[in-house]
Amino acid sequence: xxxxxxxxxxxxxxxxxxxxxxxxxxxxxxxxxxxxxxxxxxxxxxxxxxxxxxxxxxxxxxxxxxxxxxxxxxxxxxxxxxxxxxxxxxxxxxxxxxxxxxxxxxxxxxxxxxxxxxxxxxxxxxxxxxxxxxxxxxxxxxxxxxxxxxxxxxxxxxxxxxxxxxxxxxxxxxxxxxxxxxxxxxxxxxxxxxxxxxxxxxxxxxxxxxxxxxxxxxxxxxxxxxxxxxxxxxxxxxxxxxxxxxxxxxxxxxxxxxxxxxxxxxxxxxxxxxxxxxxxxxxxxxxxxxxxxxxxxxxxxxxxxxxxxxxxxxxxxxxxxxxxxxxxxxxxxxxxx
Length: 337
Prior knowledge:
Radius of gyration: 25 Å
Low-confidence stretches: 1-10, 150-154
Order of helices and strands: HHHEEEEEEHEEHHHHEHHEEHEEEHE
Number of strands: 15
Distance between the termini: 52 Å
């Protein structure tokens, strides 16, 4: 089928898909997003899904019906291993660890199965990291339960899932979150009906005159300053705050449940922390000796819902406040008015 899940299946079946363990933690809106990447197929009784030893690129979710798993014995005969029940997902190891299929699967009765192809699985992780994290977490939770019951070790799966999650949502150089995760986090708070009236603040910032540092001391010095600034930002925040590196020397911080006055205090603390840090950098590009330098940052603040009711507007308005801070002399904090 070429149509997506929402256009092909009935409302009742869509609802049942949403309640399967793989998608249970997704909001309705998040599930609609994922539905664009999965395809339903109807399997007749005794049809083969895949054979033991095959290398596949898909994982599956059983929506209705039942499947039987068989394993090969030493004499070549097939032995029943277990049944796959409605709601179970399977085949994830072929995507995650590129392992061959560990069993042969056949339909015990007419069934409906969702296919989640490898390329689409990774698209969800990269394009929608918040959703991807939830799906990876669901896989880990189910696998952990299975480990407890079977005493088998899938520690590689857990490590891979955690590593993939970090790569999808973080900036490689600084370890802060990336732009996509920041935007998804803001959007999630705007779209979640239980958060409609909860305030949040967005700090937009960049380092003052970083290009002068690159020109004088080299790009390695610029990277050292950016990493030091990321540490300074992180040290000023609470566990639930979301610091992100947007690109180059541009940063942002989402402060949930934070009003204007508290956001201003956090921003001033970040500005002072960055200004007070001395960073050891090469005295010139390629030089062996080092020197200590300092940098400054300008910060703009926007508040939701006072200033904006969409992700795009909140980012644009906080960026406008940042431009004002730079126009007024840099190394300062400005709130949008």
